[in-house]
Amino acid sequence: MRIGVIGGGAWGTALAQVAAQDGAPVTLWAREAEVVASINERHINDLFLSSVPLSPTIVATDDIDVLRDADAVLVVAPAQHVRSVLANVDFGGTPLVLCAKGIEAGTRLLVGEIAREVQPGSPIAVLSGPTFAHEVAAGLPTAVTLACEDATLGARLAERIAAPTFRTYASDDVIGAEIGGAVKNVLAIGSGVVEGARLGQNARAALIARGFAEMTRFGLARGARAETMAGLSGLGDLVLTCSSTSSRNFSLGLGLGEGRSARDLLADRRTVAEGAFTAPVLREAAAEAGVAMPVCDAVCTLLGGAPVADVIGALLARPLREERG
Prior knowledge:
Number of helices: 15
Number of strands: 8
Strand order of the largest sheet: 3-2-1-4-5-6-7-8
Oligomer: single chain
Strand content: 5-15%
């Protein structure tokens, strides 16, 4: 199975490295001319993943039409750009494996719903789970969910993408895998705020636990299964991104907690903190679904410029209730 990858950032490059195991050919499309040049000439992504030498069987291109020859395409463009990227080429019936995590502003669509609109002839799968790109590219042990409604196709994709240190677990709960990946980005910002404001480990644990309850409520309301929310693409990804400055979303929250403005923090970034775009859309989607998500609401308020102390105080002042998820 010939693999194409859309996106020359750290995550797209790491997945290309996994797919190129045992000398398998992989074609990676990138916007940046310097990324294409450094991968093809020096087998390294100087701009986004300079720490890992890449397989010589990875060939980079700036011509997205080349990917029409692939048997499956990994879509690793940021969630807010998936629509415009996929609109540039007709993939026909080529399976698309969606690796971005987020909800589209304006439409409130998950990435899979966007892909079905723009590429209606292509089967859709979702790859999600607790992954830092530099660890995956370096061959450190990793496990992910690969969700696909077509079980046969899902099994084929999972087998092709799997590697000795990259374990894929098959699922048919596409919605659940997507929601876990989108909501955890917002919660990771909140966890970073706790760290930056020096609120302590008790507060971080409480945020993760209550955030997971919110993620699960929202997932179930959208048709996801509880076991998916408790799996790699839900709880697993949440724990990882809420615990390390390797997470772009956690780092954004860390800066907010230290008193920096969201505008300055986002302007200073070469890579995308998806949670900043997902938060206001998630608040709208949750309200529409009638799901209470106070932690995610608080993150959205912080991104809007509210003082950390005021937002934390409002969360702590909420009426006491029984813990029922």
